[in-house]
Amino acid sequence: MKNILLTLVFVVTISTFMQAQTTSDANGILVPISFVGDLRKIVTIRPEEQIKEVKGSVYLYKDFVLNGIVSTTKGETFNINNMNIDLKNQEFVAKYARDSIFVFSNLSKVQIINTQYFKSGGQIYTILFEGNNFSILKNMKKILKDAVINKMNGLTVSPARWYTEIKYFKFNNDQVHPKIIEIKLNKNNLLKLIAVDKQKNIKSFIKNNSYSFKNEKDVKKIFNYYNSLL
Predict the structure, then answer these.
(1) Band of the pLDDT at 59, cuts 50, 70, 90?
(2) CA–CA gap between residue 65 and residue 194 (Å, rounded)
(3) Which of 117-128 are b and which e, b meaning 16 or more Cβ less than 10 Å from the residue's Cβ?
(4) pLDDT in tens, 14-52
(5) 85, 163, 156: which is closest to 126 by C-alpha?
(6) Distance (Å, whole) CA 16 – CA 154
(7) What span, in angstroms and rounded, lies between the C-alpha atoms of 67 and 51?
(8) First vs last C-alpha separation in the chain
(9) d(CA 93, CA 78)
(10) 201 — phi, psi (to 5°)?
């Protein structure tokens, strides 16, 4: 991901963290003493947030059983076990104990199941399309929807639940003045990103393949084709 993410430099494998010992840093925050290099500086431990009687989860993935590759802003890269993404707090996390998690900061990118993520302005994004002049990014966030209560009898009609809010953005790939602007996945918005002299070709490509600007997978194919025309 040449225009947004830093290149991997080297890999250090870290074993499962369930039994890791800890010490306190200068701020009194617990960090595992087994961590090496920059990784020890970018990890803190906090209790895992538990909200009872709420359906769903704040995490992107169902379980903490996934391996991830995290890259620091200084270029170090580490393999991490039991990773996940906290979509409520927009944090990269890993399981530490039954009721505790590691929280990572100052990362340039994270890779989980062949998908790369990065954080900017406090938000976590993944790249749907990366072109010469701009990229299309995706952000997911968990929002808590309150329970619906029957005012007559006080009974719960539907429980509180976490739902996923998805937004898309254009990133202008400008190293001097980078800018992220929210966009909608529809024909009017996305055609504005395509040069006028290429729009006829794009419309034919969409029609011939029965693609839609509202479908995320189709949008990736459409803009990869558009990039090949430049």
Answers:
(1) very high
(2) 40
(3) bbbeeeebbbbb
(4) 333 333 444 444 444 444 434 545 566 788 888 887 777
(5) 85
(6) 46
(7) 26
(8) 19
(9) 14
(10) -60, -40
